[in-house]
Amino acid sequence: MRRRKQNKKEPMLTGWRFMTVCGVILFSFVALFARAAWIQVVSPDRLRLEGDMRSLRTTVTSTTRGMIMDRNGEELAVSVPVQAVWADPKQVHTELSLKKGQAWQALADVLGVPHETLMKRIENPKRRFVYLQRQVTPAVAEYIRKLRLPGVHLRPEERRFYPTGEINAHLVGMTNIDGSGIEGIERGFNEWLTAQAGERRVRKDRNGRVIEDLGVVSEARQANNIQLTIDQRIQALAYRSLKRASEYYRATSASLVMIDVKTGEVLAIVNSPSFNPNNRSQYQSFRARNRAVTDTYEPGSTIKPLIVVSALENGVVNADSIVDTSPGWMRLGGKRVADHRNLGPISVQTILQRSSNMGMARMALQETPEQLLDTLYRFGLGIDSGMGLVGESTGLVPQRRRWSDIERATLSFGYGITVTPLQLAQSYAVLANGGVRYPLTIIKRSQPPVGEQVVPKQHADAVLHMLESVVGPGGTALQAAIPGYRVAGKTGTSRKAIAGGYGSDYVGLFAGMAPAGNPRLAMVVVMNEPQGDKYYGGDVAAPVFAEVMSGALQLLNIRPDGATEEQFQLAGQEAKRVPHT
User: Fold this and answer.
1) CB 58 within 8 A of CB 201
2) Which tens digits make up the pLDDT trace of 332-352?
3) What are the catalytic residues?
4) Shortest CA distance to 69 belongs to which of 190, 232, 179, 184?
5) CA distance 482 to 572
6) What are φ and ψ of residue 36, in 5° steps?
7) What is the pLDDT of residues 400-410, one digit of tens each?
8) DSSP 97
9) Three-class SS state of 217
10) What are the residues facing 495 on neighbouring strands?
11) Rounded to whole angstroms, how far apart are CA atoms 349 and 330?
């Protein structure tokens, strides 16, 4: 027992080993502390950057393009939510997504893309983003989502939709696939309609969930809506009537403009042919031109009332003067100016009623070119309307150092000058408003406009009264008469200019105002190159005027001012035997 106790030895601690272990542990803690201090205090930027690259993200708030509405708030252009289909080729190849061949074939079918084309878009495994289809409907997007193809994703975007289709296509215009305006109001007021997306900085975890909101990077700017002066009810009526007439007379094109004479607001502006902005596959550039503001025409006899105002203002004639048009023709500079027959001595009113070229030439030759041109400019011809419409033309009011007699004479009945339908409508609005010209607008004003007296009221009113006879018995615009309303207007028929002279094509025009007792509306109808036997303005343009103006007067609740049914029927009988110009 004693021996066993003697043999038991106590463990011995070797001093250097213990010190070594303690030293290693202490060194490790010092190293870890130093490294942590280095990372946290001395040089934290690099690793902080690495962490931010993996977790910080900038999110963009969704934006909606502003709406375009008519004067009554009816929507003409709106943005609808759609989806864009895109793919990450690297993810597609990494996750072996292509093994789901049946699903890829279904994707190609629903997108309407050949399967081979779809495969080519994702064949490069180094790419990280490629569009497969833009602006797909929510139903198609949901179908694609259910395919569960790795590497195929959806992202929200917007598509512009035009509820009224081809009726407002030229005026409203359209946007491209990225939502920027490329035609019409969409282009002219693109910045006003476009919203600015806001940005926020957030931190996300590895699963893409937001774990920290770090604040706003840039504030969002909401888009602005635009309310036009257009009355969609009148616009639709005008388009249907104009399209039907242009197809019936097989016209190359046709335009119509209606203006509120008391405010300068454009109530309708339509063209034919048109296009459907919702169907881009059938888009043709020649159909997209807003011809009412871009195309110019020689106005023919529709300019005669403006020349009569000039003659009255400069003392060449009085409202009750008699002008001798005998013998019904004359030669100026080797060119012949003539009426359809010798009208003899006639009044100024009869000159307009019968559309006498001789009578107009007699008056114009007693004025200087400067006097004629000054009057035309004051009526708004040869200058920009200021409405901001894309492609608007100013027309052509000739400026010459020397004017021959034949140039002054032909100017008086609408040759040698070009105007747009919009300009011609404005000039008749000035006549209808007692010589006051309001600035034209297509955007609804918040304040009443200020007009300018550009010609004396007594002369404008006198010519307006004369123009009533054009629509009455013995006039050239009997088909422009409207039951219950007094109408004033003027027909015009001009030959189309070609190289070296004039060809065999015509432009038929009618410009008028109603009700003549207290004019509220002015309208111009232009039929470009009608085919067949009927091409006079009184035949092809006046009926459109009557149909559209009659509907507009009723829609706007403008009360009749005196034309009886008997007078209307008499005018209809006279229409069959009166010659046109």
Assistant:
1) yes
2) 888 899 998 999 999 999 999
3) 301
4) 232
5) 10
6) -65, -40
7) 889 999 999 99
8) G
9) strand
10) 506
11) 21
